[in-house]
């Protein structure tokens, strides 16, 4: 095993362990901060896939945006409300059975799909040009989002505009509301 | 194995630089503030108080680590490390001289912008972990301010990227001097590719970038929590803001992060707007000053001089202007800076299509 593989498995393990701890941890603030570890090591895995733009975008959007928003929501919420949250009981109950069943069936579908697919034989993987380490991927991303994916790009911008206007409308001091 | 050694050497050199710069900035901040307020400043330790910063560091090292009983210990201990490392990682993509850059990333500018956003997380961590209402209030103010001022800063940087057509900081710098292979036009009309110097800087290539630079400079002051945007640390209201509970070396790390951040945002501004490591002296027919003063040593000299000038302006502003109120701060960001930055970006697009 060379150094690169070692680092890859280190980050993969970090993603899994921290994600598990985020779910099971009782302390809400710590679990949000642990979520940062998950997202950041996921960005590291993107770097290994030579998707550096996605990796940096992941850090900007999730760490700089979503995570700070979650913390704000947490800190601005009522303290009484947080105290009234019951700690998760670890005993098994009958109504957990449905959840366990759904999780296991999803796991089964995923695993069976991965086993069935022959990744190296897929047409779109064979025909695609491989990305090299020094490639300037942002040029390609820019070109594609302005030509081939122009419609989704514009729809997204309209959607974000709607969200912005909606947020401004909710936040303003209205006479009617 | 040799390149691993280079990585370690480069990283330690950058760390040594940030530490040295902080010492220097501490002393100069005291002396400049003393000059502005018409007093002498530190005079006791060393000649003209020149060893004062070292004495301060010695004092910091000796202090005890105090963790408040009610604090969240893990978050409290980790926060200064995260704050410092996020700023320190930003130095990895900054160009120092022609061919001298720790990591020449295609995404350089975007990377720095992303890495700096982690600092907000560290500040929130410090504020929450201290379990102190002043610390929490300070960190909330700080994050609200940093998140809002990232928008005008980011958009004014984008208007440069639209002119330069690259996110690689080294390429952006090369395009502002005599080493470029593309056309460089002063104010969009006069070809100054062979003349170089101050005429080829981005702010003079497209004059609306002067406005963009002023927007970026104001926003960068807010991002490193410097006066007039220092409500997160307002001593008269919040004792000391998010770092009120920290002592000793942990406080030193927060301080180190703050001063490194000043240098970092100053250097980003210099690289993008003020020619980076390019010489300000132009070639005048046979007296080719620009060609003589371009090189690795000169590059480091120019970028250091320019950035230190920007840092000096930051210090000067801190001791001249009073503090903003929170509502003034927010309305200034959203109602003045953001629309102006959008306007700059629009002009950049039109400039790129028509003038270049």
SSE blueprint:
The complex is a heterodimer of chains A (177) and B (356).
Chain A (H helix, E strand, L loop, with lengths): L2 H22 L3 H21 L3 H25 L2 H5 L12 H21 L6 H5 L9 H10 L3 H22 L6
Helix pairs in contact in A: 1-2, 2-3
Chain B lengths: L1 H35 L15 H11 L10 H18 L17 H23 L2 H32 L4 H6 L10 E2 L3 E2 L10 H4 L2 H16 L11 H4 L9 H26 L9 E2 L2 E2 H4 L3 H23 L7 H29 L2
Antiparallel strand pairs in B: 1-2, 3-4
Helix pairs in contact in B: 1-2, 1-10, 1-12, 2-10, 3-4, 3-10, 4-5, 5-8, 5-13, 8-10, 8-13, 10-12
Describe the structure.
Chain B: The chain crosses the membrane at residues 6-27, 74-97, 109-128, 149-167, 198-219, 251-275, 295-317, 329-351. Chain B: It catalyses: a quinone + NADH + 5 H(+)(in) = a quinol + NAD(+) + 4 H(+)(out). Chain B: Belongs to the complex I subunit 1 family. Chain B: Its EC number is 7.1.1.-. The complex is a heterodimer of chains A (177) and B (356). Chain A has 177 residues and is mainly alpha-helical. Chain A folds into two domains: 1-85, Up-down Bundle (Four Helix Bundle (Hemerythrin (Met), subunit A)), CATH 1.20.120; 138-177. Helices cover 74% and strands 0% of the residues of chain A. Chain A is built from eight helices and no strands. In chain A, helix 1 runs antiparallel to helix 2 and helix 2 (28-48) packs antiparallel against helix 3. Chain A is extended, with a radius of gyration of 22 Å. The termini of chain A are far apart. Chain B has a domain at 95-106 and 151-231 and 247-354. A two-stranded antiparallel sheet of chain B has the order 1-2. In chain B, strand 3 (283-284) and strand 4 form a beta hairpin. In chain B, helix 1 packs across helix 2 and helix 4 (108-130) runs antiparallel to helix 5. The relative contact order of chain B is 0.15. The chains are: A mainly alpha (177), B mainly alpha (356). At the A-B interface, helix 2 and helix 3 of A face helix 4 and helix 5 of B.
